[in-house]
Specification:
0% of the residues lie in helices and 51% in strands. The termini are far apart. It is mainly β. A hairpin with a 4-residue loop joins β9 and β10. The protein is built from no helices and eleven strands.
Length: 115
């Protein structure tokens, strides 16, 4: 059974940093494109960053230069390093695994940027 468990969300001051993790079980990780999304209350789930099976990355313009997505295939884990956080980064962050057969979502982790 495939399961994605996201963690690392917290309350942080503007300008601070956080690292989110998403551990994937179910033996799909190496074949999956991994993506982070975020969602604010009442809003749509929005793309943040993605990393391909070979490590190619793409970012939304709003986070480019501040966030870094990476993956550790040995640990079946995708990370999102978030630096220079701003109040507008406040959201629930979700990880997604996409394989040729299906799409899987994690449960979300709350990031709050506030002084």
């Amino acid at each position: 059974q495939v399961q994605l468990v996201a963690s690392g969300g917290d309350l942080v001051q503007p300008g601070g940093s956080l690292r989110l993790s998403c551990v994937v079980s179910g033996n799909i990780f190496t074949g999956a494109i991994m993506t982070w999304y975020r969602q604010v209350p009442g809003g749509q789930r929005m793309f943040v960053a993605t990393i391909s099976r070979s490590g190619i990355t793409q970012y939304d313009e709003s986070v480019k230069g501040r966030f870094t997505i990476s993956r550790d295939n040995a640990k079946s884990t995708v990370y999102l390093q978030m630096d220079d956080l701003r109040s507008e980064d406040t959201a629930v962050y979700y990880c997604k695994a996409q394989t040729l057969e299906s799409i899987y979502w994690g449960q979300g982790t709350q990031v709050t940027v506030s002084s």
